[in-house]
Design goal:
The complex is a heterodimer of chains A (about 300) and B (about 725). With about 300 residues, chain A is mainly α. Helix content of chain A is about 35%, strand content about 0%. The relative contact order of chain A is 0.06. The chains are: A mainly alpha (about 300), B mainly beta (about 725).
């Protein structure tokens, strides 16, 4: 335990930083910075036909971040043929589904500017690339959403990962649909080295980023806990409390068949409804006693059995 | 916060957002005219009525009577931008974020975010001191069956509030070099359930349960710094990551129910530190190839003062001797990745990879002497090697095929299954022969073998029983198995305004014949449908998902250290009997949404309905009549309520643009959640005469009606 005074000071410091930052924003908004310049007005012939597209681009993050040298042609390629002879989509680089360009071509167009950033440095390793996706599958240069996404992130991911959407709807879930956890908090859609494109070298390292209380290291360890949280939990959502992949006590008994209560069948006879509740079944069942299943520093055999 | 103060706090929640927004809005009105800045201010009065569990309804949110407020402000110049966003001001979900910088040169951010996690409100305990690390019994004498009455127990809420603040800065001023630094501090405060076992008298039969409130008062400080270089054909970065976890309470002390004034302790999460160095690099090579590497080393350590005594079940002090009174934990992780990708031909691309991950446990081994029994902790570590490759071929008729192979070898410092080997074969295909149709299909086969060895019991006296039963057990996390997985998805988008998707997944896992006791089979079938259609002023979307999972486990009830453990040949009787359970969980959910633009750019109506259902059963069979509980049969033993629930959600709202800069919304939401489970239905705080539960997860059903409105002003 560290000193409570230090904890309190930290909190004051954090509050002070936030207040000062907010004050800074107000000062800046109050005119301490130069006047804003006009957004890309175009002046390009594209707007004559594509007025909505040029308008959406001008209000996009892309337009703000990159002031548009070479205009639309920077991304869509030369427009000579498109303007002079044939207005078909395949006469420019179109990012629409029916644009006739391969994922590799579209991705190359984006990477011509973005390949050197750490965000997409490992795109070659991405499962999304292997699945035939391109940057345009998720992003559009005309978006005014964060990261130039086509739609809000969770909705975007669910449009393909429909099974995950269903899991997130279940009664035990990370606060994903509440908007407090996003897919990219754990996954890197642009690729990396973790399995399932997670942002860590192992599942446990990822989980411990938020659940540092489970990190230990403990004197009395529960080996599957130390190897992989996913042995007992499922990350997106479950019908079973605490995101368990299977309901307890069954999940515990899957491994622990031992004398006395670990091997006892806990049927409907042990429920409250039947009037003869069994302490190993009702409530939180196994956790009613074995409360420290993630590891314990408890005394002697009490710690060994995760009851202290 | 006391209940009295809570009332005035609710008032503040209503008026403070109003005052704050007015304070911000007034000085900004002048600047808005110059069009150098912009923003939005939104106020949303809300009226909520909840019958039933307010904790479950508001598990990760705070929807209640009040005025919710949000602010967004931004300003941009040629060489600077800054944005402020604040939502749910002063509520338990409040969040604030500031982003700023110069695109391509530097960026910074500061944020603060709160996430509540409400478990159960108005839980109860006969102990005093909920929320602290010392729980006492203040009544006369000791706890017993009659005293105190549950109605007199102290009440408290099981909830944990997470408050996280932090920031970061990224510098790209010296391209192609960059520096990225991020820091955060997270406070978690609240109460979660814990429990202990005890007994009323020496040899008094089964142990009793005492469920208690465990204090949560954590602070986690994190820092990550990354410096890198990125200019084709090379990318490289080095990073340092640090995390410090601080628990204000390292033990929970509680008064033993049997012995007033005698305190016992449950160990809580230890303070710990974690740091990690990492290098990542990539080199583009000829033949459209790239070599990517990753190397890291992390260290987690903790220190904990061990107790040299514990209380026995009946509350008697049991001294123990430890080889060291302080446990120093240290775990070192090492990771290497190498990935080579290549697309040398227009019709072929491939990837080969190798990964090594090691978790080395360098913690103290502590020897415990408890009377005549001497034992020590076992230190778990493992190393895992993964290697494999895949090749994708583009074939005629717009077909692509990708065969793949992966081999995983895990060596564990563990007694029963010290090594396992996975061979994973896969084949996936994609067909895009029609312009508006894409079909993906895949198959994967996993063959896992595992070496088994006789487990050495931690306590020597348990060895005879352990040696007898362990040959029949293969724990499913590392047991030998075969697994087949099939996937199919079809996406159809015949027009720009119509999309249709269909997916199916089947997975079957069969544990080998070596597994006699424990989990033996798993199977899941899942399919989903989704569609969306836009026609003029109407957008209609819907989805449906269904998943059925089945588990089969075979067990043997084993009497006190019996050696009649062989489920195939040994005698069965009332205390030694074979049994099994088939668990089945059916989940489905569907939803439809409709948006009608009644007057385009003026007013529109949105409706959404969602339904979620889970239906679980556990079909149990005891293969020895004498072991079936009196009054029951194998048919009446089954659990019909096994995490069963259904949830209806409906929302309708009308959005009206009063002017270009003023938007109003009026809406209504309804939510009904019904939960049934055999372990929680008809809950009682006392299981038997002297088992004390606290109500964790009790009565989760609710029904809620919410009326809301909002007014958003943009400038």
């Amino acid at each position: 335990m560290r000193h409570n005074v230090i904890r309190q000071l930290r909190r004051y410091a954090r509050t002070a930083v936030l207040c000062l930052s907010a004050a800074g924003v107000l000062v800046v908004l109050g005119g301490a910075t130069p006047a804003i310049s006009a957004p890309n007005e175009g002046g390009s012939p594209c707007a004559d036909c594509h007025d909505k597209a040029t308008a959406s681009f001008n209000s996009s993050y892309h337009a703000k971040a990159w002031k548009g040298a070479n205009g639309c042609q920077a991304c869509h390629g030369s427009t000579d043929q498109h303007l002079n002879t044939e207005q078909a989509k395949n006469t420019i680089i179109s990012f629409s589904k029916d644009g006739g360009r391969s994922a590799k071509e579209l991705t190359a167009q984006c990477l011509s500017c973005h390949s050197s950033t750490n965000h997409v440095a490992f795109w070659e390793t991405s499962r999304h690339k292997a699945a035939g996706m391109s940057c345009a599958s998720c992003h559009t240069g005309h978006s005014n959403l964060p990261k130039n996404l086509k739609m809000p992130q969770t909705e975007l991911c669910f449009s393909c990962h429909k099974d995950v959407r269903s899991q997130v709807n279940r009664q035990s879930h990370h606060p994903i649909k509440e908007g407090k956890v996003s897919c990219t908090d754990c996954h890197d859609p642009h690729g990396g080295f973790g399995n399932k494109m997670i942002k860590a070298d192992s599942v446990n390292e990822l989980c411990f980023k938020c659940h540092a209380d489970k990190r230990g290291p403990f004197m009395w360890e529960h080996p599957p806990v130390e190897e992989n949280c996913m042995i007992c939990h499922t990350p997106h959502g479950s019908s079973h409390t605490k995101l368990l992949s299977k309901k307890s006590p069954n999940i515990c008994q899957s491994c622990h068949d031992y004398s006395f209560h670990p091997s006892t069948p806990y049927g409907a006879n042990g429920s409250f409804t039947n009037g003869t509740p069994v302490r190993q079944f009702v409530g939180r069942n196994c956790l009613n006693c074995h409360t420290n299943v993630h590891g314990s520093n408890g005394a002697g055999s009490q710690g060994l059995r995760f009851v202290r | 916060m006391s209940r009295i103060n809570q009332g005035s706090w609710e008032m503040k929640k209503t008026y403070i957002p109003l005052a704050a927004m007015l304070a911000v809005l007034l000085p900004l009105t002048g600047y808005a005219a110059e069009n150098t800045a912009g923003g939005e201010i939104e106020l949303a009065p809300t009226f909520a009525n909840v019958d039933g569990s307010k904790a479950k309804f508001n598990e990760y949110r705070e929807v209640e009577d009040g005025v919710y407020g949000g602010i967004r402000l931004w300003k941009e110049t040629d060489d600077f931008f800054i944005k402020l966003q604040a939502d749910d001001i002063l509520y338990d979900t409040q969040n604030y974020r500031i982003d700023g910088g110069n695109y391509g040169k530097y960026k910074f951010n500061l944020y603060y975010d709160e996430i509540p996690h409400n478990l159960t409100f108005d839980a109860r305990t006969p102990l005093s001191g909920a929320g602290g690390d010392t729980l006492t019994y203040t009544g006369a004498g000791t706890l017993n069956a009659a005293s105190p009455a549950v109605s007199t127990w102290n009440t408290f809420d099981y909830k944990v509030d997470r408050k996280k603040g932090g920031g970061g800065i990224r510098l790209d001023l010296l391209k192609p070099y960059y520096l990225d630094v991020a820091f955060s501090q997270e406070d978690r405060e609240g109460i979660k359930p814990t429990a202990t076992s005890w007994n009323a008298a020496a040899g008094g039969g089964s142990r009793r349960v005492l469920e208690m409130p465990e204090p949560v008062d954590y602070v986690t400080d994190s820092l990550k710094a990354e410096f890198g270089y990125g200019l084709n054909p090379f990318f490289g970065s080095v990073s340092y990551q640090y995390s410090q976890f601080d628990n204000a309470h390292n033990n929970l002390y509680y008064e033993h129910p049997n012995t007033a004034g005698t305190m016992e302790a449950i160990s809580l999460a230890p303070d710990n530190d974690f740091y990690k160095f990492a290098f990542k690099g990539k080199a583009l090579m000829p033949l459209s190839s790239a070599l990517s590497v990753n190397a890291s080393r992390g260290v987690a350590d903790s220190s904990f003062d061990l107790r040299s005594q514990y209380l026995s079940d009946i509350g008697a002090v049991v001294p123990i001797t430890l080889s060291d009174s302080v446990f120093d934990g240290k775990v070192v992780t090492t990771n290497y990745d190498v990935v080579l990708t290549s697309s040398p031909l227009s019709y072929a691309s491939g990837k080969i990879f190798y990964k090594y991950y090691e978790k080395e446990n360098k913690s103290d081994q502590i020897t415990v002497t408890d009377g005549a029994t001497v034992f020590h902790n076992h230190l778990f570590g493992y190393d895992k090697e993964t290697m494999g490759g895949e090749v994708s071929f583009k074939l005629p008729a717009d077909v692509s095929l990708t065969p793949s192979y992966k081999h995983i070898k895990v060596k564990r410092e563990r007694g029963d299954l010290p090594e396992s080997k996975d061979n994973i074969y896969g084949l996936s295909g994609r067909w895009t022969g029609l312009e508006h149709l894409a079909v993906n299909a895949g198959y994967e086969r996993l063959d896992r073998s595992a070496d088994w060895q006789q487990l050495t019991a931690v306590i020597a006296a348990d060895q005879a029983f352990t040696s007898a039963v362990e040959p029949f057990i293969r724990r499913y996390d590392a047991a030998p198995l075969d697994r087949d997985t099939y996937k199919l998805s079809v996406n159809i988008y015949p027009t720009d305004n119509l999309n249709f998707g269909l997916g199916y997944r089947y997975k079957k896992t069969e544990y080998s014949d070596e597994t006699i006791l424990g989990l033996r089979d798993e199977k899941s079938n899942a399919f989903d449908l989704s569609a969306d259609y836009t026609l003029a002023k109407v957008t209609l979307a819907g989805y449906f998902s269904y998943e059925k999972t089945e588990y089969y486990q075979f067990q043997r009830r084993l009497g006190n250290n019996t050696l009649f453990v062989n489920p195939l040949t040994d005698v069965t009787n009332d205390t030694n009997a074979n049994w099994d359970v088939n668990e089945e969980n059916k989940n489905y959910d569907y939803g439809v949404s409709l948006e009608v633009k009644i007057v385009p750019d003026k007013w529109r109506v949105k409706m959404q309905y969602d339904y979620v259902r889970s239906d679980g059963t556990a079909d149990m069979t005891i293969f020895e009549t004498a072991a079936i509980p009196a009054g029951y049969t194998n048919d009446t033993l089954d659990h019909q309520a096994w995490d069963d629930y259904k949830k209806d959600s409906f929302q309708i709202k009308a959005i009206y643009d009063i002017t270009e800069s003023l938007v109003s919304t009026v809406g209504y939401a309804y939510e009904k959640y019904e939960y049934n489970d055999n372990a929680l239905d008809n809950y009682d705080y006392k299981i038997n005469s002297a088992d004390y539960l606290s109500g964790a997860y009790k009565d989760q059903s609710y029904e809620a009606n919410v009326v809301f409105a909002s007014l958003k002003y943009s400038f």
